[in-house]
Predict the 3D structure of the following.
Amino acid sequence: MDYSIVNNAQDLPFSFIVQDIIAGNLERSAAKLAVFKKMEGIAAIDLPDIAAAVTLIFQRGKLTLETGIVSNPAIIIKTSSDIVTDLNLLKICCGLPCYFNASGRRVLRHLLAGNLRIKGLFTHPVLLNRFTEIMSVI
């Protein structure tokens, strides 16, 4: 496969989980690889309950993971470690997350309850949708 993932956040065990999910999805799905190659921007995942944050810098086929929140990410997902796994179960329909199944409704409940906050939800929807698509294991 024609892509690159560089993990500069190796001091953070959560970074290996993110790296493995993305690499596995890219290996299994040509569609996800095509989406990955279009991605350009910066996203971060912040998990305060385990004091872990990782920034993902996408450069059209190349991903660099950095420790902490760096480089002013367009997307910041802030939640707990148990809720972040729900995001990986979102089904993607026509390039958009599907909120009409059990996993989607669970994510919506977390958003509405304030347990899941996404900076850039409305200002960077293309990057967020692509990020969701390559992170989804469904």
